[in-house]
Amino acid sequence: MASKRVEQIAAHLNYPRGMLAGQTAIITGSGQGIGAEAARLFANEGAKVVVSDIDGAKAQSVADQINQSGGQAIAVPGDMLDDKYLDTLVKKAAEFGNGKLHIIVNNAGYTWDGVIHKTTDKQWDTILALHNTQPFKLVRVAAPYFRVKDGEPRNVVNISSTSGLHGNAGQANYALAKAGVTGLTKTIAKEWGPQFGVRANTVAFGHIATRLTAAKEEGGYVTLPDGEKVALGIPQKQKGAKEAGAEAFKDIPLGRPGTATEAAGAILSIVSPLMSYVSGQTLSVTGGRNM
């Protein structure tokens, strides 16, 4: 049996059509950053990619780039906090995949920081809904496409953070939400693995260079449905030049933040056939921080 598995893995190393050929993937929050890079990498490996993002223009731009490069993608923009959008997203993804859906990457999200005694109910409820409730609902809507016995691979990847693994001052809402997705991941793996072969894993990122880790003074923000703007980034003005530079990464063995492409590569690797016996796990992508 072991030798047969080795032969299968060896065969997988020669993918003329890509490691994800024939698979259809939904990647939420893929209009920019890690999600956009994951969409491109998935498409390069033969997947049909559904680009999901609240920003329609950015989602369409990513899909257009993929199609112009010879891949296959569609943009299905919408608000993850809208339950009706989740129904539409799964429906259009299944149509794009000729009635099948193989991969969901729950990547959409942002931070809305505040110390515990100043965090509002709106901050709390929004972040938990975005990172916990809606990913669960998306998986639930997609259940008919995952609870099948056709012998094809199925994967759910929930994106977490070191804030969820270790906590982080000023991020009680985000830390709880990101810790919560690991429990969701393990439950999916235990419920859908035995009969249907579904793999579910969590990828927890450390310091990846995105708008969430850029200097807050750069003015990045997310606009909520009611028009309120949520500032993104990490405040730098109280830090000295050295601390804001290379010194800021001295606790990372690799000495630098990760790139969005490196982060996306970790997502690709965990859904690939090279990790076909990995399920219910949390992969920390941190450059060695917190080991």
Automatic annotation (TrEMBL):
Taxonomy, superkingdom: Eukaryota
N-terminal signal peptide: none
Catalytic function, reaction form: a (3R)-hydroxyacyl-[ACP] + NADP(+) = a 3-oxoacyl-[ACP] + NADPH + H(+)
Database matches in SUPFAM superfamilies: NAD(P)-binding Rossmann-fold domains
Recorded coiled-coil stretches: none
Known EC number: 1.1.1.100
GO molecular function terms noted in the UniProt entry: 3-oxoacyl-[acyl-carrier-protein] reductase (NADPH) activity
Boundaries of every Ketoreductase domain copy: 23-195
Keywords noted in UniProt: NADP
Annotated InterPro entries: KR_dom (IPR057326), NAD(P)-bd_dom_sf (IPR036291), SDR (IPR050259), SDR_fam (IPR002347)
UniProt family annotation: Belongs to the short-chain dehydrogenases/reductases (SDR) family.
Name of the protein described by the UniProt record: 3-oxoacyl-[acyl-carrier-protein] reductase
Organism name: Extremus antarcticus
Organism taxonomic ancestry: Eukaryota, Fungi, Dikarya, Ascomycota, Pezizomycotina
